[in-house]
Every structure is written in C-alpha cells, then in structure tokens.
Amino acid sequence: MRLAVLGAGDVGRSVAELAADYDHEVTAFADSTGAVVDPDGVDVAAALDHKDRVGSVGEAAPADALG
What range does the record give for the signal peptide (predicted)? Predict the structure, then answer.
C-alpha cells in the first residue's frame, strides 16, 4: 500500500511509523511548514528525526522537499 501522511503530530507520526513497520510505502509526508515527497518511499525515520531536530519534515533528504 502506498500512502501520503498529512500531519506530523502525535497521530501523523504514529500513522507514518506504523505504515513503515508494516512495509507500506509512505510516498509523501507533510506538516504545517513543509513536505517531503519521494515516489520510491520517504525514509520515515529520517523525516521524523529531521522534524525533531529542525521542526519540519520538509527538506528531509534524500527526497524532494516542498515548502
């Protein structure tokens, strides 16, 4: 299953982590300040780490950042 996750708060974070745990492909991940998109799948752990360090999932490499 491929999905986009909108929101990186408690619920969005949990959905993204569960999707990755069950080998579903998160192709886009967005929060209120930006988004990261990768048709081959966003690295959810890297995006969440970036969110924790910088405050946004946007620009979490190696995907295309929006915002």
Answer: none
pLDDT digits (tens, 9 = 90+) for 9-64: 999 999 999 999 999 999 999 999 889 999 999 999 999 999 999 998 887 655 55
For helices 44-54 and 10-21, the axis angle rounded to 10 degrees is 150
Look at the pTM and tell me if it is higher than 0.85: no
Domain count along the chain: 1
Range of the domain at 59: 2-66
Count the Cβ atoms, other than its own, within 10 Å of residue 60.
Answer: 25
- Could you tell me which of 59, 35, 33 has the C-alpha nearest to residue 16? 35
DSSP state, residue 26: E
